[in-house]
Design goal:
The complex is a heterodimer. Chain A is α/β, with parallel strands linked by helices. Helices cover 30% and strands 22% of the residues of chain A. Chain A has a five-stranded parallel β-sheet. In chain B, 23% of the residues lie in helices and 24% in strands. Classes of the chains: A alpha/beta, B alpha/beta.
């Protein structure tokens, strides 16, 4: 089964992203939304955790949530796809199951 | 005014994901009317509250970050940001809103409100406070 994992917590405060990465399997996707978008930033204490997982898992981040928080797209880790709400819907339809890491 | 106490508002949450940041800002502005000695601390994810360029148009929430710029007008001009928290998030002072105030004791010269401090200095600021409000 192909799974989409959503993460809405900052990786610098909670371990939701870490746990999602640990439990995602090859071919799964992780979408960062709300405070989860801080996980997509370059140069943080948690960036390495994401780049290490990018070989097996595809990462997406919600653009409107980045803009709300003043995070410029140039600061996003290379290889993470920036999407909008329509893209979120598309991701949900492309996967069999969606799991939220709250 | 007698009995002035040192108030410290401690901000540790990112904006928008939870209501803490906005609630803190509102309490600070209300509290400013009571002419106490007020300071704000930003550490952990709280440093994200002060980032430049916030634009909430697409998420349907109020962008309250411009309100931080008004703090100087309410004599709230001691804003401490922890360096270790910035470093952990790949941020520098340049990524933060330029917050200023006019110093009435120095011919109303415009001065920076934000002071970047170490965790040890932040601990001392906390230790010297009479009242701490946590958000």
């Amino acid at each position: 089964m192909s799974q989409l994992h959503t993460v809405n917590k900052s990786p610098l405060e909670r371990i939701a992203l870490e746990s999602a990465i640990k439990h995602a399997v090859k071919g799964n996707a992780i979408l960062m939304i709300e405070d989860g978008v801080y996980g997509a930033m370059q140069g943080t204490q948690k960036s390495g955790m994401v780049t290490d997982a990018m070989g097996d898992i595809s990462f997406y981040v919600m653009g409107p949530d980045l803009k709300a928080r003043g995070i410029d797209e140039a600061r996003i880790i290379d290889g993470i796809n920036i999407i909008d709400y329509n893209g979120f819907v598309t991701l949900v339809t492309e996967h069999d199951v969606t799991q939220s890491w709250l | 005014m007698s009995d002035v106490k040192k108030f410290l508002y401690v901000n540790r949450k990112a904006p928008y994901g939870t209501i803490y940041a906005l609630e803190s800002l509102e309490v600070v502005l209300i509290g400013a009317a009571f002419e106490q000695d007020v300071a704000l601390a930003f550490l952990d994810d709280g440093v994200f509250q002060l980032t430049k360029g916030q634009d909430t148009g697409e998420v349907g929430m109020k962008n309250f970050s411009p309100t931080y710029k008004a703090l100087g007008d309410y004599d709230v001009n001691k804003i401490y940001v922890e360096k270790e928290s910035l470093d952990a998030r790949g941020l520098t002072l340049d990524d933060l809103l330029p917050l200023t105030y006019e110093d009435e004791d120095d011919d109303w010269a415009e001065k920076d409100s934000i002071k970047v401090v170490s965790a040890a200095e932040m601990a001392e600021i906390m230790e010297q406070s009479d009242v701490i409000l946590s958000f």
